[in-house]
Specification:
Blueprint (H helix, E strand, L loop, with lengths): L1 H22 L38 E10 L4 E7 L5 E11 L5 E11 H6 L13 E6 L1 H12 L4 E5 L3 E3 L5 E6 L5 E10 L6 E10 L1
Antiparallel strand pairs: 1-10, 2-3, 2-5, 3-4, 4-6, 4-7, 8-9, 9-10
Length: 210
């Protein structure tokens, strides 16, 4: 009987110990929700549009060329020069001849030619090299006739005939003409006789103001 009571007490103690352990056992840690720091949103002021720069006033376009060509009787002077406009070239042809009165009559023509027209007319030799600005040449009557005929049948050629001017040998003369681009072309001419062969030292002064 005593052993039974002791056994019952032992069982009761074990049950009580188990209940106490259950009641006061290790509690699970309470998880605290983490707060994620959000970077502050910066409000930037709207960017004002950039003010466009006013284009600078276009300066007057000027071309000036001055040179001298030794001509034999019957020859013409050709001035070939590069235009400022891309792909365009200028040419001046002047033919002097002596009148029965001993004056000098000079017939001038001004032309604008595209690069393709220069090539088609086979006139590359009358224009300056790539590092030069102008080229002064003397051509005979046959070459001049062939050149003019070729230019008349070539696209991209604008020919401006200038008035014929008559002056005394060695006297300065000037002729002017306007073109379709509202620019004024002025050509100063002076033919100084050459006693050796009856030809001329022809001075040309081309000016253009736009």
């Amino acid at each position: 009987m005593r052993h039974s009571i002791i056994l019952v007490c032992l069982v009761l103690c074990l049950i009580a110990f188990w209940l106490m352990r259950t009641a006061f056992g290790t509690k699970e840690p309470v998880s605290v929700p983490k707060t994620v720091a959000t970077p502050p949103t910066s409000l930037s002021a709207p960017t004002s549009p950039k003010a466009e720069k006013t284009p600078a006033a276009r300066k007057p376009l000027k071309i000036a060329s001055k040179g001298k060509v030794r001509l034999k009787p019957g020859e013409s002077a050709v001035l070939g020069y590069w235009e400022i406009a891309p792909g365009m070239n200028g040419m001046a042809i002047v033919t002097p001849e002596t009148t029965p009165e001993g004056h000098v009559k000079m017939t001038a023509k001004l032309l604008h030619l595209s690069d393709a027209a220069v090539s088609d007319a086979e006139a590359n030799d009358l224009f300056p090299d790539i590092f030069d600005l102008e080229n002064y040449s003397a051509i005979g009557q046959q070459r001049l006739s062939e050149l003019q005929s070729s230019l008349q049948n070539t696209r991209g050629v604008d020919m401006l005939s200038m008035p014929t001017v008559v002056s005394h040998p060695g006297q300065q003369a000037s002729i002017s003409i306007g073109n379709s681009n509202d620019s004024m072309l002025s050509l100063g001419l002076q033919a100084d006789p050459v006693a050796d062969d009856g030809g001329y030292d022809l001075s040309l002064d081309l000016q253009r103001q736009q």
